[in-house]
Specification:
Strand content of chain B: 15-25%
Strand order of the largest sheet of chain A: 1-2
Strand order of the largest sheet of chain B: 11-10-9-12-13-14
CATH topology of the largest domain in chain B: Rossmann fold
Order of helices and strands of chain A: HHHEEHHHH
Number of helices of chain A: 7
Number of strands of chain A: 2
Structural class of chain B: alpha/beta
Distance between the termini of chain A: 12 Å
Helix content of chain B: 40-55%
CATH class of the largest domain in chain B: Alpha Beta
Largest sheet of chain A: 2 strands, antiparallel
Strand content of chain A: under 5%
Structural class of chain A: mainly alpha
Order of helices and strands of chain B: HHHHEEEEEEEEHHEHEHEHEHEHEHHH
Oligomer: heterodimer
Distance between the termini of chain B: 81 Å
Chain lengths: 216, 459
């Protein structure tokens, strides 16, 4: 059992890890074909895994409704929404419109899903304002530098700001292209090395905690 | 100088164009001129000067004719071969430059199906460009795969834009020199495109990857022999504090693994850190909530959490529902997690992994509930949001270092040391590369490329 739970996954990881690391250096169409096939497998496996996810979702909310936990009404709304969407989706063959006429499924998507998503995204503007207000209070030297840099960049990125302070355009470009870009690249170099190191550990079985089941 | 007016010659009724005229009693033009000039040698000198001036004004015309003849010799040393290190469907043409090329003359690359061509002039023109362009030195080949010296011309034929090259089929290719509508074609050369099994251009990448791998293994073996110093990472020191606070308040801990699936290293790193966090929550008997966007990540994290509870000696406290799926949709997930934060008021929120626009929506809501927030991400675009709204942020590589920091295992710590050596190496290469590239530009030298090409991203 341990063999199946530990050795086999590690062996699969080692082989596939080395093969697909090597695939990067093989330009032959057969190599590209192999990568495409495996990507499709991953999508198919992901599709099956969705069953796992949905069953988890149903289970968690069913327990909430059964126990009448705080906010169980939301769980009930979730059930209604999900089952209702599945029903209208099946009814309309998954199509949003037939012969130019919107189906019930299309109506749910266009008049419920899309506005709700847009609303969530729109909240971001207010959250940016509140986060900026909190961060830009010059309580320390670092915060003061952040505040000054932010003001310059904000002024330089809008036409009115550049009109009022002509230098802000060039200054903001310099901050973005020199200071910001160099720091970002430094972070990206660190991230890339971390990614490669983690991949090496996983491929050679030195990092196994993602498998669960202990170190045996 | 003149004995009489020059108009005499023009007004003379005697024809000087009639050869018979001389025999019929008229003077020859030379005799006439001699008679008109005080010094007969003078008019001869003037005529000589006139001829010289006229010949000078015509010399560019003669020279151009010479150039036309010179450039319009057919291109020399034409070589065609399958483009190396590619996936096929491509041929490369090389030829020697003419002695005096300019932008006025042009080269045409001609293509024809099949190994033989009866009339090269009927071949299809697939490219035309000024004769002073497309040298091998301008190509992207690194020095170890450059097929010839940089002075030769080079053109790579690829599928697309009216060209269709099928692997295994023979093609005839040649080059023509064109000037002022005249065209001279070199003898066609046959070649067959083939896919290659190794991209030799990227061998520098492979060597550097192997070098880095070797450094990591060396660092791990060193870490097994002696202890390696790890600098403090405040964000990870705060993990215990956050879990302790949650225990004191009797509130749960919320842990997120990011937007990506398990194929992304940042998600794997987040899952590994979850194991360490879950072990502490098990020890402190604190509730753990892990909402997921991806079912496979959820399944993996369930295993990791279960194991953490086992290792902590609290298997009975493990709840299967601690890891649960919400949705793959970005903002639906965000709304659901925001709801959890507002209803359950977790004492600590962990944001590990990769995030997109939802980052600020999550962290700002978390901040409004007064929770301790610890983030760790390799998403550089979201870092400012995490830094402004969270108490602690693991920046970039610190996310990958977290596992080593929390566990202090030699393998993990050694890997971290390997990364540091790798960074020092990159820093050195950036410094040396900057100096060499500057020298190369200053002295118009090619030798810095011997070093610079090794660290170039060649496709």
């Amino acid at each position: 059992m341990i063999f199946l739970r530990r050795q086999v996954p590690l062996l699969i990881t080692l082989i596939t890890g080395l093969v697909f690391a090597g695939q990067y250096y093989v330009p032959h169409p057969a190599s590209e074909q192999m990568l495409t096939s495996v990507t499709k497998w991953l999508q198919i496996i992901g599709g099956f895994a969705l069953v796992l996810g949905v069953s988890s979702l149903f289970h968690v909310h069913a327990v909430k409704i059964r126990r009448k936990e705080a906010g169980w009404g939301y769980s009930f709304v979730l059930y209604v929404g999900m089952l209702g969407t599945i029903a209208v989706g099946l009814w309309g063959n998954g199509k949003e419109a037939v012969d130019g006429a919107m189906t019930a499924f299309g109506w749910v998507y266009n008049f419920m899903m899309v506005p709700l998503q847009s609303t969530m995204f729109a909240i971001l503007a207010f959250f940016i304002a509140s986060a900026a207000y909190r961060s830009f209070r010059a309580r320390s030297r670092e915060a003061a530098v952040l505040l000054i840099a932010a003001v310059i960049v904000m002024m330089g990125r809008v036409p009115l700001g550049e009109y009022l302070i002509p230098l802000s355009g060039d200054l903001s470009q310099w901050i973005l292209n020199v200071l910001n870009a160099s720091v970002r690249r430094a972070i990206l170099i660190g991230v890339s090395l971390g990614t490669v190191a983690l991949s090496i550990k996983i491929i050679f079985g030195m990092e196994r905690s993602y498998l669960g089941g202990g170190k045996e | 100088m003149l004995k009489t007016s020059a108009s005499f010659v023009l007004s003379s009724s005697k024809s000087s164009t009639c050869p018979g005229g001389y025999a019929s009693g008229f003077d020859s033009p030379a005799v006439l001129l001699d008679s008109r000039f005080e010094h007969p040698a003078l008019w001869k000198a003037l005529v000589l000067l006139l001829v010289t001036v006229l010949s000078q004004s015509w010399s560019p015309v003669f020279a151009q004719t010479d150039e036309t003849k010179k450039i319009l010799s057919p291109p020399q040393d034409v070589r065609v071969f399958d483009t190396p290190s590619d996936g096929g469907g491509s041929l490369t043409v090389l030829w020697s430059p003419a002695s005096d090329e300019s932008a006025t003359s042009k080269y045409q690359v001609l293509l024809s199906d099949g190994a033989t061509v009866s009339d090269p002039a009927s071949m299809k023109v697939v490219a035309e460009f000024p004769a002073n362009q497309r040298y091998v030195r301008e190509s992207k080949w690194p020095w170890w795969t450059k097929p010839t010296t940089g002075d030769q011309h080079q053109f790579t034929l690829k599928n697309g834009k009216g060209v269709e090259l099928k692997n295994g089929n023979a093609y005839s290719i040649t080059v023509a020199a064109v000037l002022n509508g005249d065209r001279v074609i070199a003898t066609p050369v046959q070649a067959t495109p083939e896919p290659n099994w190794i991209n030799w251009n990227q061998m520098n990448n492979l060597l550097l990857a192997l070098l880095f791998g070797g450094i990591v293994f060396y660092a791990i073996s060193t870490a097994r022999k002696r202890e390696i110093f790890l600098r403090r990472i405040p964000g990870l020191d705060a993990v215990d504090e956050a879990i302790g606070r949650a225990t004191e308040l009797g509130k749960p801990i919320l842990y997120m693994t990011g937007a990506h699936d398990m194929s992304d290293p940042s998600t794997i790193a987040a899952a590994v850190i979850l194991g360490r966090v879950a072990k502490r929550t098990a020890a402190y008997e604190t509730d753990l909530l892990v909402p997921h966007r991806e079912p496979i990540t959820m399944a993996v994290c369930q295993e990791i959490t279960k194991q953490a509870y086992l290792e902590a000696g609290k298997p009975d406290l493990y709840k299967e529902d601690s890891n649960f799926f919400i949705t793959s949709d970005q903002f639906s997930y965000t709304a659901a997690v925001d709801g959890i934060m507002l209803r359950k008021k977790p004492a600590a929120n962990f944001y590990m992994g990769h995030y997109f626009a939802e980052a600020l929506l999550l962290t700002e809501t978390g901040a409004s509930t007064g929770a301790i927030q610890i983030a760790g991400t390799d998403a550089d675009h979201q870092l400012p949001f995490f830094v402004t709204t969270c108490d602690y942020t693991l920046i970039g590589e610190e996310l990958y270092a977290a596992s080593a920091y929390l566990s202090r295992e030699p393998v993990q710590v050694g890997t971290l040391r390997g990364q540091d050596i790798g960074k020092a190496l990159i820093l050195g290469v950036i410094g040396v590369g900057t100096i060499l590239a500057t020298l190369g530009v200053m002295f118009d030298a090619q030798w810095p490329k011997l070093f610079l090409d090794i660290f170039r991203d060649v496709k």
